[in-house]
Amino acid sequence: MVSIFPEPTMQLAQRLLARAEAAGLTLATAESCTGGLVAGCLTDIAGASAVVEAGFVTYSNDAKRTMLDVPGDLIADAGAVSEPVARAMAAGALHRARADMAVAITGVAGPGGGTPTKPVGLVHFATHRRGGAGVHACHRFGDIGRSAIRLKSVDVALTMLLARIAD
């Protein structure tokens, strides 16, 4: 089968699914700027249903509030592209999907929409594991193009989930 994702990304996704399944863990995704690419990458692999519980595409602020219970005042105060919102998205996905682990991605993929404090290429990630603390990462990919930012974000999200399996 031919995938739309690069081979290294697919290998990473396969490792994640195999390790999660071996550990008896289920996964959920909460995606904004990636628009479901992380869930799409995982479900490109046969047998992903043993691990992938749910994927939420919460592109709008309203979707973040209604689907993931992200407080509206948090979005208003910190902005949708922020550490607190990424953390809240991951916690909301974990709760709503009843999964064991979740990853959230929110960022500015461009080409427009950037500001001096939140430029194109800024992406916040968060993972949350049931019974554990959340983990945040922030990447500044730069203005390398919308598709490149989104694909690099998939790799970061998969890597973060893989690292959480041992927690």
Q: What's the CATH architecture?
A: Alpha-Beta Complex
Morphology:
globular
Helix fraction by DSSP (H/I, runs of at least 4): 40-55%
**pLDDT averaged over residues:** 97
Q: Please, how many helices? A: 6
| Cα gyration radius (Å) | 15 Å
Order of helices and strands: HEHEHHHEEEH
CATH topology: Maf protein
Portion of residues in beta strands equals 15-25%
Find the structural class using helix and strand composition. Answer: alpha/beta
State the total count of DSSP E strands: 5
The structural domain count equals 1
The major beta sheet can be summarized as: 5 strands, mixed
CATH superfamily: CinA-like
Would you identify the regions where 5 or more consecutive residues have pLDDT less than 50? none
What is the spatial order of strands in the main beta sheet? 2-1-3-4-5
What is the CATH domain class?
Alpha Beta
Describe the fold and architecture.
- The chain is an alpha/beta fold and 167 residues long.
- It has one domain (7-164): Maf protein.
- It is 44% helix and 19% strand.
- The protein contains six helices and five strands, in the order H-E-H-E-H-H-H-E-E-E-H.
- The chain has helices at residues 7-23, 37-43, 61-68, 72-78, 83-97, 146-164, and strands at residues 27-31, 52-57, 101-107, 122-129, 135-140.
- A five-stranded mixed sheet has the order 2-1-3-4-5, with helices on both faces.
- The chain starts with 6 loop residues before the first helix and ends with a helix.
- The model has no long low-confidence stretch (mean pLDDT 97).
